[in-house]
Design brief:
16% strand; 316 residues; 12 strands; globular; alpha/beta; Rossmann fold; five-stranded parallel sheet; seven-stranded parallel sheet
């Protein structure tokens, strides 16, 4: 069996992909452009992809393709309907990055809440030494205890973030489809109005695209901290930039972008040096342990598929 990994670079150079050789001949490509997809899938029976888009045209050029393994939970880069028509299975990996994403979410909130973007450079650039003062306590920062932490999307990641928020003494407010015992639930509008901190963990769907709109941002508390660890298009990125620049948003953490990598024309790009902005390169999911779990789960998905089982199938 021929296995093609189309964008191994997204999984990191420290991950050993040789475990996939258990299933046959392995071809590993660090990255794949849209023009290269068809050629590289031509003889593949199993494709492993993270962000490479696979649609009807690519499937038509890959007559032997039997299974697509997405090295992620989200699979919006795969035309599942076209896969169904051609009898190509699609598997994702759920739950592997929960701790990693929750950890980076909390780190982003702490970076912004503690004003590290201003305090750390003050020491690094020599200003602290030159000041002759024992300490610096401006700009002011505030404790998280007693603040309201709103969580949009209360799946595995959202729940873990909720546990962290509760450990800091925050009131946790969750926005989810169905109410759940043990957590205070609210609709998106109430959450936006009442939260001091808002973190996004919802999948990108037609319903969640643009969920954090300009009008909803305008209802948020002045100085709110907002972190997007979901998908870039869940929020109106131009509206976020405008609200950050005006000071309505006090701290903004972004790990995901509607177009990746973030292009120079992105509305946040000119603001990237602001201390109230914490930008990371879509890495929240990618602690080493999480990436290893992801690879292990991909192998389990392939084994299951070869046995005729339906493990992690998103096309059924």
């Amino acid at each position: 069996m021929n296995i093609a990994v189309l964008d191994a670079g997204t999984l990191g150079d420290d991950l050993n992909l040789d475990t996939l050789k258990e299933f046959g001949t392995l071809c590993v490509y660090k990255s794949t452009t849209p023009e290269e997809i068809a050629k590289r899938l031509k003889d593949a029976e199993v494709a492993v992809v993270n962000k490479v888009p696979i649609g009807a045209a690519a499937l038509a050029a890959a007559p032997g393709l039997r299974l697509i393994c997405v090295a992620a939970t989200g699979y919006d880069n795969i035309e599942v309907g076209a896969c169904l028509e051609r009898g190509v299975g699609v598997c994702n990996v759920a739950g592997y990055s929960t701790d990693s994403v929750a950890q980076i979410t909390a780190a982003s909130v702490l970076y912004l809440a503690c004003r590290y973007g201003e305090y750390v450079p003050f020491v690094k650039d020599g200003s602290y030494t030159a000041s002759f003062a024992a300490n610096k306590v401006s700009p002011p920062f505030y404790e998280l205890r007693g603040k309201t932490w709103g969580i949009v999307g209360y799946g595995n990641i959202g729940k873990q973030v909720g546990r962290i928020a509760a450990a800091f003494g925050c009131r946790v407010l969750a926005c989810k489809r169905t109410p759940e015992e043990g957590v205070e639930c609210a609709d998106i509008d109430r959450l936006c109005r009442e939260s001091d901190i808002i973190t996004l963990h919802t999948p990108l769907t037609p319903e969640t695209k643009g969920l954090i709109s300009k009008s909803r941002i305008s209802t948020m508390k002045k100085g709110v901290i907002l972190v997007n660890a979901a998908r870039g298009a869940v929020a109106d990125e131009a509206a976020l930039a405008e609200a950050l620049e005006s000071g309505h948003i006090g701290g903004l953490g972004i790990d995901v972008y509607s177009k990746e990598p973030m292009p120079a024309e992105h509305p946040l790009y000119p603001l990237r040096h602001l201390p109230s902005l914490c930008l990371t390169p879509h890495m929240a999911w990618a602690a080493f342990e999480a990436r290893q779990r992801c690879l292990d789960e991909i192998c389990e998905n392939i084994r299951s598929f070869l046995k005729g089982e339906r493990r992690s199938r998103v096309d059924l």
